[in-house]
Every structure is written in C-alpha cells, then in structure tokens.
Amino acid sequence: MKIGYARVSSASQSLEIQIDALKKHGCDKIYREKKSGKNMERPEFKRMIEDFREGDVCVATRLDRLSRSLSDLIKTLEVLNQKNVGLKILATDIDTTTAYGKLVFSIIGSIGEFERELAKSRREEGVQKYLENGGVLGRKAKFPEDKQDEIRYLHKQKGISYNQLAERFQCSRMTIYRILKGND
After folding, report:
1. pLDDT band at 112 (very low <50, low <70, confident <90, very high)
2. Distance between CA atoms of residues 108 and 163, nearest Å
C-alpha cells in the first residue's frame, strides 16, 4: 500500500499541492499535518509510522516533509527499514523499492551511523578530559564534608534518628540516608 505524508509548517499554509501530487502518485491513504518538522513530536506522523505494515511504501513530495534535521531523518529511515517499509520521495530519485534507491538509503544510513559513532567518541573524549582535569562525575554532594561528618557523628554517637537529622539539617530523609550509607 502506498501511504502519503503531507506536511506544512503552519496552519496558514496549504497542503493542496502536496496532496494532489500524492494522489497522482497513487497513494491509498494520506496523512496530513500542519506542524513544524523541527522535531518528531507530530501526532499524524507518529500515527502513520505506527500504521505501517511490511511492504507498504511511505511517499512524500520532498525529503524535508518527513524531517528537517538529519538525525531525525535517519531515525525515521531506520524505523521504516525495521518495518520493511519502502520510501519514495517524489522530488528526488530516492525510492527504496528500487536497487538505486536502496543504495541511496544504505548510504544515508551509513552516514547516520558514522555520525553517531563520532558523537559518541567526542562525548567519551570530553568525559575523559574532564576527569583528567580533576572533574568528578555524578551528583554534587548536598553538604560539604564537615557537615556530613557532623551528621554521622550525631547519628552514631548521639543516637539522633534519620527524621530528626533531616529536620535539623532541613533536607530529606533520603539525603540523610545517603550520607550515613556513604553515598553522599
């Protein structure tokens, strides 16, 4: 089944040109949306993705109708691939129901995978550099070490309860628990 997707960015724009092109291409169903493509939070787009069945073909007039960012486009292409759904973009030669289209699709997917690996590598390098420069990962302690020592002393030596310590130091009982268990 050919399933079309027509999108414009604002309510004042018209979908008619896209809808006419999708109908001429033989789309059995057309999802219509008047919402920005800057992210994937589009109800009709999500509904279309959920409704796809193996062997369907997603048809759009232009690639930017599906997504405005490369990372979101790659995610969309991965989902279509997992569902064994073809992709046809009317304004270009992208048609994954053909050998050439599958090649283009593979190249785009490879570029996306390469970019994700680069981003992962940059993150890991950044974390390593941060640690080398004395940075500490994790949540910052609620209290300085001397206050934590005081809390431990009051609990162990004076027998003050978790609740009383939390009230006295104006924090949650969980914070006191973490300090006494050595996690803060």
Report:
1. low
2. 57
